[in-house]
């Protein structure tokens, strides 16, 4: 295998790894969006609970049935869910920062390999022209 072929193989490998990282990043961004929607939905429910009077009845959907639930318990469940979702958002955002750094590093590697390959090809063309 010639030096140029080795360079091309390295470039292809790095490019494949970069594409894999991009797909992983896309998945993480999607997870973040889902968590954002869940947080918004639960905060809306939390806001609705603030408008309830003590005599209002709260129901919880369990499978296909609505089951009566204690207001305090329902509020507590929503508060707990909000805290959990916020924790998950923080975890996903840290993952996103990490993978963005990996993607940037791999992108730089691809650019360097590509530049080296172009330079090598130009050098070979220059040598062939001068012969």
From TrEMBL:
Q: Which keywords does the record carry?
A: Chaperone, Coiled coil
Gene Ontology terms for molecular function: protein-folding chaperone binding; unfolded protein binding
For this record, the Gene Ontology CC terms, alphabetical, are: cytoplasm; prefoldin complex
Q: Which residues form a coiled coil?
A: 4-31, 75-123
Q: Which domain of life is it from?
A: Eukaryota
A single GO BP term for this record reads: chaperone-mediated protein complex assembly
Question: Which CDD domains does this one have?
Answer: Prefoldin_6
Family affiliation: Belongs to the prefoldin subunit beta family.
* Name this polypeptide is given: Prefoldin
Q: Which organism is it from?
A: Pterulicium gracile
């Amino acid at each position: 295998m010639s030096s140029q072929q080795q360079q091309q193989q390295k470039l292809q490998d790095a490019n494949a790894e970069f594409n894999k990282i991009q797909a992983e990043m896309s998945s993480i961004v999607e997870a973040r969006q889902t968590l954002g929607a869940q947080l918004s939905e639960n905060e809306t429910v939390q806001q609705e609970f603030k408008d309830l009077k003590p005599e209002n009845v709260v129901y919880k959907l369990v499978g296909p049935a609505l089951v009566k639930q204690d207001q305090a318990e329902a509020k507590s469940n929503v508060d707990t869910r909000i805290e959990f979702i916020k924790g998950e958002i923080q975890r996903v955002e840290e993952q996103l920062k990490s993978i963005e750094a990996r993607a940037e590093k791999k992108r730089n590697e691809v650019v360097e390999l590509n530049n080296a390959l172009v330079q090598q090809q130009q050098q070979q063309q220059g040598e062939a022209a001068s012969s």
